[in-house]
């Protein structure tokens, strides 16, 4: 009997303890597609590594939700063929509800278990050599675009691109980004592509400087008691036009609500807990619109890829570190220093 085909997968044995394990190759069923992962950006998985705090579909032996790669196998009726280059979007939504069919799949309530559908034991995570995804969540990569750059259409840039589309960010507007992690820094590139005036608020000196290099017009230190005054001075006292919070921290979200001007709009992307809002003072009297958003909407994919294609040099600066999958522990330790931008794993030598 032939040996079972296996692939490498990242796993955690406890806080701060990671290793590479082997799992059987994923199986596909229905309209699922098998993808060889060639670039796997890192996102909030460091919370599991540091605190054993698992988000999204993360488990000890299933980590990562961003990827780009090459189609290996698909069903007979699929639009994809082996060798096609694709971005693999996050999540496993139902694909049938009103949110899914309108492209806003990230808000689907009736998510599915891909392993139950496929009958396999693997394939739901990006920190692996292969993964599976329904074909409507695969975006063809334009010719000439690298896998690393294309993968920024996931959390790295895709989430804030959709936030800006929903708030109709326009040239000349002021946009405040609170939280300068792997999502907030990507927002700077998106804003500059639109001709917006970008303001960034964060704590990490490294990331504040990186935000400047990516094109931020004003960068403030969240530990500075005069940070809000600096933002108001920059806007001539009127407050910012748009706010995107990427921090998942109440103090940053409060900063954004205090900084936004009358008639402005605020989007919360960071998945946080409770925040005290004074409905009359913060929203009604100021005429502020508050949005909740998550991930790239499907209808925004062409525009996102266009921005990526036009922002190559900035994306090269945004991606500060790459690691082989075998060195994932060093990659996590690098994330925890906060002296990095986007970190990308390469599952294959």
UniProtKB/TrEMBL annotation:
Pathway: Metabolic intermediate biosynthesis; 2-deoxystreptamine biosynthesis; 2-deoxystreptamine from D-glucose 6-phosphate: step 3/4. Belongs to the zinc-containing alcohol dehydrogenase family. DOIA dehydrogenase subfamily. SMART domains: PKS_ER. Gene3D superfamilies: Medium-chain alcohol dehydrogenases, catalytic domain. Coiled coil: none annotated. Keywords: Metal-binding, Oxidoreductase, Zinc. The keyword tRNA processing does not apply. It comes from Streptomyces mesophilus. Its EC number is 1.1.1.329. It is an enzyme of class 1 (oxidoreductase). Catalyzes the oxidation of 2-deoxy-scyllo-inosamine (DOIA) with NAD(+) or NADP(+), forming 3-amino-2,3-dideoxy-scyllo-inosose (amino-DOI). It catalyses: 2-deoxy-scyllo-inosamine + NAD(+) = 3-amino-2,3-dideoxy-scyllo-inosose + NADH + H(+); 2-deoxy-scyllo-inosamine + NADP(+) = 3-amino-2,3-dideoxy-scyllo-inosose + NADPH + H(+). GO terms for molecular function: oxidoreductase activity; zinc ion binding. PROSITE patterns: ADH_ZINC. Pfam families: ADH_N (PF08240), ADH_zinc_N (PF00107). Residues 10-345 form the Enoyl reductase (ER) domain. Its cofactor is Zn(2+). This is 2-deoxy-scyllo-inosamine dehydrogenase. The keyword Oxidoreductase applies.
């Amino acid at each position: 009997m032939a040996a079972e085909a296996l692939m490498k997968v990242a796993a955690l044995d406890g806080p701060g303890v990671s290793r590479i394990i082997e799992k059987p190759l994923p199986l596909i069923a229905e309209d699922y597609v098998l993808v060889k992962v060639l670039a796997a950006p890192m996102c909030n998985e460091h919370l599991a590594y540091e605190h054993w705090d698992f988000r999204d579909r993360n488990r000890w032996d299933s980590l990562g939700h961003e990827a780009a790669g090459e189609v290996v196998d698909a069903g007979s009726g699929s639009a994809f063929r082996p060798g096609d280059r694709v971005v693999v979007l996050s999540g496993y939504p139902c694909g049938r509800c009103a949110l899914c069919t309108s492209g806003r799949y990230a808000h689907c309530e009736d998510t599915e278990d891909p392993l139950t559908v496929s009958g396999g034991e693997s394939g739901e995570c990006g920190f692996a050599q292969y993964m599976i995804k329904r074909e409507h969540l695969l975006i063809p990569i334009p010719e000439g675009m690298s896998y690393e750059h294309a993968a920024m259409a996931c959390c790295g840039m895709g989430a804030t691109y959709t936030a800006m589309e929903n708030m109709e960010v326009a040239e000349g507007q002021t946009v405040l980004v609170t939280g300068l992690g792997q999502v907030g820094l990507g927002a700077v590139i998106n804003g500059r592509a639109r001709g917006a005036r970008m303001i960034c608020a964060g704590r990490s000196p490294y990331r504040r400087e990186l935000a400047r290099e990516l094109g931020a017009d004003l960068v403030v230190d969240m530990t500075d008691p005069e940070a809000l005054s600096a933002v108001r001075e920059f806007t001539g006292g009127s407050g910012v036009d748009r706010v995107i919070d990427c921090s998942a921290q109440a103090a940053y979200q409060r900063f954004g609500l205090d900084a936004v001007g009358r008639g402005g709009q605020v989007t919360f992307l960071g998945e946080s807990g409770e925040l005290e809002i004074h409905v009359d003072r913060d929203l009604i009297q100021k005429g502020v619109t508050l949005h909740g958003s998550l991930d790239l909407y499907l209808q925004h994919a062409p525009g996102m890829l266009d921005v990526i294609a036009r922002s190559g040099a900035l994306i090269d600066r945004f991606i500060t570190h790459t690691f082989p999958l075998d060195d994932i522990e060093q990659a996590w330790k690098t994330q925890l220093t906060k002296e990095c931008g986007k970190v990308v794993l390469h599952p294959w030598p």
